[in-house]
Amino acid sequence: MAEIQMQVYEEIKREDDDHRYDDLKMEEKKIKNDHVVVLLWKKWIKTNCLALTINMLTTGIILTVIYFIVIAPLRQKLADIDMRLTAIEKQNGTKLRESENVESTNLGGKDTSFMVIFQEGILPTTPKILVASENTTRLSIRYFNQNKIQTITMDKSNTEYNLSKSVLPSVGIHMAGVELHSDEGINVYGFSLGAGVSGGYSSMPTRFASIKYIIPTLPAFYSYKNMIALTPCYQNTVVSINLKLKSGSVAYDNKQYSNNETIRIMVNKYDTFQLSTSSDLSGTLVTSSKPVIVVSGNQCNSAIPINIRAGDCNPFIESVLPTNQLDSMFITPYISTRLNNTVRIQAVNSTNLTIKTGKKAISKTLNAREFLDFYYNTISFISSSEDILVTSYPHGLSERKGDPFMMTIPGVNQYLYEYDFVVPTGFDSYISITVQSDATDGLFLDGNSLKSQSSVFSISEGMNNFSTFSLPISTGLYRIEHKKKVRFGLWIYGNGDPWDGYGYPAGMAYKAYN
Fold first, then answer.
1. C-alpha distance from residue 269 to each of 146, 162, 175, 291, 311 (Å)
2. Of 21, 309, 316, 319, which is most buried by a Cβ count within 10 Å?
3. pLDDT digit string (tens) for 187-224?
4. Are residues 223 and 323 in the same domain?
5. Are 54 and 169 part of one and the same domain?
6. pLDDT at residue 91 above 50?
7. Per the domain annotation, does 245 fall within a domain?
């Protein structure tokens, strides 16, 4: 019995050993399989890492080759093109402008809608409009103080129209001015004709009215006031006038305002607001919630100190260009019979200036809203790092032959290659032209060449070469053009006897914004 039990035990033990052996064998096989899998994964990872490294190196080599073969030469070509464009810009005396919001430039200068306003005078004057149109045009006139429209016809023989004196404002808000609409493009000039107190300006088309202006005036002459007048293009326009005053204060609505204080008013369409003060308002900033038209000037001024002036004082008036219609390069024109001229440069933002008169050049830095005055005789060159406003004040003449006047100087980039313009009655008038020196022989006035001019004054600065000349002209409508479509500057001005004078630019190219 014991022997049988021992045999049974041994058989059971052998079966257990066999099972244990099989389990070990299976475990060994599993371990070997896992090891193979690990080896395969390691091999796959190494292979892919190597392939990735090779691809990255290959890509780097290809990109390097592309850069040196394609991109680097292309960049060099672009740099060469940019240098050539810069040279062309300098040669042409113009600057190619880039602006995301600039839509186009109105190279024709003319338009169909205008709002014409004036300033308060010191003596009676006849306010009028001068209309330059190549063809007969129907012009509708709406006086601000009347809710009706009258229509007139203007043509080559009928270029001046007298307005009601209701267009002349006084201090405060009044319905004083006219709105004009024509059936084709015209140039319009606002003009006040009076005995020894005349003045005029080139009216900016309504569609170029804007919301920011920097004001040019001069120190007051005796008790005569400096003035700002403005009219909005839309109802419910909020206007802010931030004063720039060297001394004194401005009174409005029973309150005194000092330097850097702001006058705020609400003005509606067909209202004209006028502000007057004995302080110099140069650098005063006008901003508005909607576009406005602005004029500024003086009741009567001589442009130079009393102790050295010639002639009498004269009313100054000019349409103020908005800050988005300014430029950075200017040529001041030769003004026949007026060899003494004051130029005021008005900065909007901080800017670096270069001014050349004759062979003398100076550099100057102006801070925001500062101004600089200088004198010139025949021609001068002005350039700036930022857009500026430039105004000329030709001095008066002795022996009652002519009084001073105020005249905007458009920049080189604002020139046109053709103009229709009007010369007013009652003056010994002239036109002045500035043009690239190599293009003086392409100008034609009513079809007649102007190439044979005896007194031509020229100036050069870098690659900019400009010339200017002046010639007498009689009353009436004219057309001047450059046959090669070279753009040039044009001004009309005149002397009155006794003691009178006027001047204004014939027109300009306006920038149109979105």
1. 13, 23, 9, 10, 39
2. 316
3. 999 999 999 999 999 999 999 999 999 999 999 888 89
4. yes
5. no
6. no
7. yes
pLDDT, tens digit (0-9, with 9 covering 90-100), for 151-177: 999 999 999 999 999 999 999 999 999
Place of tokens 């299976």: 26
Residues 74, 109, single domain; the answer is no
The CA radius of gyration of the chain, in Å to the nearest whole number, is 39
Q: Does position 97 have pLDDT exceeding 90, yes or no?
A: no
Residues 164, 84 within the same domain: no
Q: Which amino acid is at 45?
A: I
Strand partners, 402: 397
| Residue that is last in its domain, among 92, 127, 161 | 92
Mean per-residue pLDDT, 72-100 = 45
Q: Which of 114, 269, 142 is nearest to 206 (CA)?
A: 114
Is 97 a member of any domain?
no
In this structure, the chain runs to a length of 514
Q: What is the mean pLDDT of the chain?
A: 87
In a domain, 16, yes or no: yes
Q: Are residues 472 and 507 in the same domain?
A: yes
Is pLDDT of 109 > 50? yes
- Cβ proximity of 424 and 194 under 8 Å: no
For residue 38, is it within any domain?
Answer: yes
141-150, long-range: CB < 8 A, 24+ apart: 141/178, 141/179, 141/180, 142/178, 142/179, 142/180, 143/167, 143/177, 143/178, 144/175, 144/176, 144/177, 144/178, 144/179, 144/231, 144/270, 144/271, 144/272, 145/175, 145/176, 145/270
109 or 119, greater pLDDT: 119
* CA gap 266, 240 in Å, rounded: 9
Report the share of the chain in percent with pLDDT over 70.
Answer: 80
Asked if 180 contacts 483 with a C-beta cutoff of 8 angstroms, the reply is: no
